[in-house]
Amino acid sequence: MPTYNKLVRDRIADIIRENGKTLSSRILEHGEYVEALKVKFNEEWREYNEAPDDTHAIEELADMLEILYNLAKLHGVDEEVVNEVCQRKRRERGGFSDKVFLIEVSDD
């Protein structure tokens, strides 16, 4: 039996059972959950970087977004607030779509 020891999406245990398999799992304590989300984000980031095509890349980006929304909940806000902050920052400071790469700034 494979051992995973990792955070999985909420329905994974049900899906495993529906496929006739047994599993063991537990609910994480708060601190463990925070750390597991961070580990999971890094896992998804690696998978995004290794994605062989756009379809797989979008799947990994969606996983990262789900993790980010759950991290935001731990900071007391929902995904709507995160999106509002993102929009505000884009209005005030811009996004990243212009591809500006800052080299240096001089005080002259």
UniProtKB/TrEMBL annotation:
Highest taxon in the source lineage: Bacteria
Organism encoding this protein: Alicyclobacillus mengziensis
Lineage: Bacteria, Bacillati, Bacillota, Bacilli, Bacillales
Entry protein name: Nucleoside triphosphate pyrophosphohydrolase
